[in-house]
Amino acid sequence: xxxxxxxxxxxxxxxxxxxxxxxxxxxxxxxxxxxxxxxxxxxxxxxxxxxxxxxxxxxxxxxxxxxxxxxxxxxxxxxxxxxxxxxxxxxxxxxxxxxxxxxxxxxxxxxxxxxxxxxxxxxxxxxxxxxxxxxxxxxxxxxxxxxxxxxxxxxxxxxxxxxxxxxxxxxxxxxxxxxxxxxxxxxxxxxxxxxxxxxxxxxxxxxxxxxxxxxxxxxxxxxxxxxxxxxxxxxxxxxxxxxxxxxxxxxxxxxxxxxxxxxxxxxxxxxxxxxxxxxxxxxxxxxxxxxxxxxxxxxxxxxxxxxxxxxxxxxxxxxxxxxxxxxxxxxxxxxxxxxxxxxxxxxxxxxxxxxxxxxxxxxxxxxxxxxxxxxxxxxxxxxxxxxxxxxxxxxxxxxxxxxxxxxxxxxxxxxxxxxxxxxxxxxxxxxxxxxxxxxxxxxxxxxxxxxxxxxxxxxxxxxxxxxxxxxxxxxxxxxxxxxxxxxxxxxxxxxxxxxxxxxxxxxxxxxxxxxxxxxxxxxxxxxxxxxxxxxxxxxxxxxxxxxxxxxxxxxxxxxxxxxxxxxxxxxxxxxxxxxxxxxxxxxxxxxxxxxxxxxxxxxxxxxxxxxxxxxxxxxxxxxxxxxxxxxxxxxxxxxxxxxxxxxxxxxxxxxxxxxxxxxxxxxxxxxxxxxxxxxxxxxxxxxxxxxxxxxxxxx
Length: 699
Known about the structure:
Number of helices: 20
Largest sheet: 6 strands, mixed
Strand content: 15-25%
Shape: globular
Number of strands: 23
Distance between the termini: 46 Å
Structural class: alpha/beta
Strand order of the largest sheet: 9-14-13-12-10-11
Low-confidence stretches: none
CATH superfamily of the largest domain: Glycoside hydrolase, family 3, N-terminal domain
Mean pLDDT: 96
């Protein structure tokens, strides 16, 4: 259905409502209007990496893991699967008159905020620290959710607009100060792309203020969104963010003032309860009937675009409930988990051979943990495969597997009545009686996530540092002291400094939060059934680097993210090893695309990611380090040489002024092509550099 037709139908329907009925439709839990045949609708649903909080659904790797795939085609297919399951759930439950929260077709995903600081607990929900990568992946996700049919399959939401990435504890009162240059260069590009190119139906405002204005009622942001970018969908507040205007930001006197400010600025839908005061504001003459009607029409335009109102219906109405966790979707989740895993170190121990590795000791608090598979904003799977279970299944009948939890995830003991370190001795004995040790460490949503808010855990939030919890550091040292060949698996959604394990362990594998069946994929990589091929979408810093960065509350990019970091990272953005040995032999081309000759000099077939970085050598306005401007996931058999063509982001040849204007760069430019970034640390870790191409300034 064309938007113009949907809008006309919305206008006709809204005109038949009373003002009070229109006002009631601006709440996230919109009531039914039976006399007009309008069913109740709850706008709040989540689909970050699978349909969340609404019952059984396929569980995909957490968003940061999906970013590590560097695979927009696969990500779009995953989003298609999520929208298919959302439709199936909606079709089945609405037929039972179940129109509860988390059962609708408006998915408040993706989170396209920039993961600018490694301490941010919600960074796991994002696609990392790079605006270009975030734009490409966000576009793929939105297109997969919304589909290409006559109606929207589901309505995607770009959140949180804008300049939002912690601290979580301050988000309800915080004022994020960002320069116009940083806004245009870093914080806004993904939102613009999702509006202008992906046609995202919904934008969600952030809790915080940006440069003094609350994000859900910011004249600057709304002018960008609806004026400059031409956004025609609806705008929703983050949950209870309008209440923050008067309770925490103290920019209004009370609920009526907050409603007035938000509605007049263009916030159409309130997640929260403050819009219960809309009629009070109307009766006082603070807002007009036109203000209420405008937002109501936008919301009903979306409902008509979804095909949930009127006689036409939707081509998706017949999607059956049987698609939930169907084999096709489970295979997508499995493939994503394989592509997401990032091999950080391998001295040759991996891949393991179950016939020769002897007794395997699996140790660590995340080795048999379901929570470490799923991250936050997760759904419920009908079955889970932990890392321990994946390994046991892989080597069944071939070798013995010993197991020790080793320690609690974050507390100093597993059993409350025991002494501190109550599993350390068992872990040491397990390692001593093993020929190969697999130590599974990391975090889960109780240690990194969203600030305790309605519907979320009260034990999550930002990290204080980049180290593993003390209980796990003690375990790590105790196990490594046994001197056995050791693989460390990190399960986390953000940068972790594993306390010198890079030097002491034989191999390190980062699995992120790999989804409900993620343990199977991890085991397949460990034992060589597949080659790891993920790349870091964020920089992994040494913990000591935090003292060199701006304060967490400082939104400048100075010495933060790979584009501006001046130090040597633990593991760089774009880094990840494989079981092959892929390198670039030559690069040629121009401003629009390049041809890259790549070869796998190893003896194992693998997938890998070709990456392009560009540096403006002549402009002081350009970031100091080369910037990602293109990438391509490739397959190379052992010994195979192929030529690949990769398009270059047109914005790569622009810079941003201090006034926030994007202008052509000065040039000349150096373009780098490789299976990682062109930085010294990547060369040190991989032994391979990047091929470079000189691109002269256009005359």
